[in-house]
Hints:
By secondary structure, this protein is mainly alpha-helical. The protein has 14 helices and no strands.
Amino acid sequence: MLAALAGAAVLGSEQYGLFAFLTLTVSLLNSFAVPGLAPLVNQAIAATGDLRRAGALTSVALSFVAVQLFICCTGFLLLVDVAKVDWSGQGNELLQGFGSAVAVWWTVATGFGIVISAVFAGHKRFATLAKLTFARAVLVGCTTVTVGAMYGSATLSAAAAGTAEMAMTAVGLVIVLKARWLVPAGRHEAMALARSLVRRAVPAGAAALSINGAAWLLQSLLLSRADGLAENGGFALASRLSLVVSFLPGALANSSITYVAGPSDPLRTRSVVLRVVKIGMAFAVAAALSIVVAANYLPALLGPTYEQFSSVIVIMALTGVAVSANHVLGSVAVGLGRIRAWVISDGVLAAALCILALLLAPRYGANGAAIATGFAYAVSAALLAAVLVPRVMKRESTERDGLPSGDSPFRTVRSPIHQVPMSETVPWGDDEIRRHGVS
């Protein structure tokens, strides 16, 4: 976060707007290459008690990502540098030539890093993951800010960030290899695991792709304005500040997948869910209020080009509360095996963001973009709450009535990848899962 603020200060609103657009392009490419894979890998590793099987799953996931990265990055380079597609107003020049190569380099680094982080979380090595995350933040942040201060270039700053990211991904991979968490899978086992992952990851990835696509559309609309570079820079700064609100809830949510997905007492599962929601949302509200109070002073610290964006900072701070709720409830849904609810909520989020972006961003600039983002995340979180809260209350009434644990609605917490026989693919609907003996 400090590095992001320092980067915004040294680059200025216009170059920072370009840097933010390049960052979002990397996220969009990763939506193709890592289609919703991280939480599913986390859940599957946590749910299996077989280290060899977990190692085979890790091997299959990394191989799948390697193939996807090659396909999506090659396609991106062909579209940008061969077909010369006009991407987005003032962002078009950034994504051609050296800019496209930087985007690909950064995408490869983050794509593998996402899966490796999920492997650490699945094995419950949270201390090691925290150290790697901290080291990555320091290295990427310091490298990016240093290059930005020296050259004032969004593209060179992004290249530095990608190089630092690649270094930390390599460190993570070395640790995974030393821990023997990467086990070659036999042909039939690999095919079965791949089918299981793809059946679940593709719909989830489509939802993630739609969200990043909607966000990309939003920034493209900002860049199409006459003052688009500065507007996108101000919106990006406010979005970074909102991460203060959603960081802890997001970390709790990612950790909760492991405990909710693993075999455990249903009462303990419910306790974990409620604790994560309460602590995460309490922190989010407190952090949002702190940023709202400081909103009039923060832009002045970063330079005169940001002084007009204090209102955007306020809106995005409040948006951070909705983002926190959506992240927490989405992770709980994944842990409980409610993948369909998670995917649908992401689809609703993307649709709402696209519609509101088209209506608000061209006319109201960064303020309109912030309002569109907050409302879209609030709708998605409300949908998840409507699905999950009745299940939690049902569990509570089940315990009061003294029903046996076999009637618990939390029996779906174990991963279908772990429970379904190797010769079968994992069906998608809950009714189909029950036909395999998983209720």
